[in-house]
Amino acid sequence: MLRNLRAQSDFKSTILRNQLTSLVLYEVIQTTQANGRALETYANRFFNNVKTADLNSKKLAHAILFDKNAIKKVFEEILPRFKSDETTFVKLVKATPRKGDSASMAFVSLLKTIVDSPVKEAVLTEKKDKVTVTTRTKKKTVEKKPEADTEEDDD
Question: How many whole angstroms from its chain centre is CA 72?
């Protein structure tokens, strides 16, 4: 089912291509939920088409992605992380609404992401290990304290 992003078709494809390029370069991006859902299907189709890494795949990547560094990263870093039979490459995680207009937001990220920045770490950490504290000015992640065992010896 094709989703309606309420824009002309060339503008929609440009938006999706630009967001896919950003997703490849940064591995995690934040966008609205509507754009995120459309990007998720578009990105999964893209990665399924280029996962063979032959000449036609490289031509397709050059036709879709805007940045040469993104093309290089797809074939040298991202695709080797996945098995050849995997079909899902991207996940969508809901986020808090945007403050200005309360638009529903989401994080779109690659499934197997190498965490190397605090933003990626905050988005992709397991909730049971960390607690995210959000204030008006900043967001910080605090590790949970392990609960101490309350066993007493009867000596």
Answer: 18
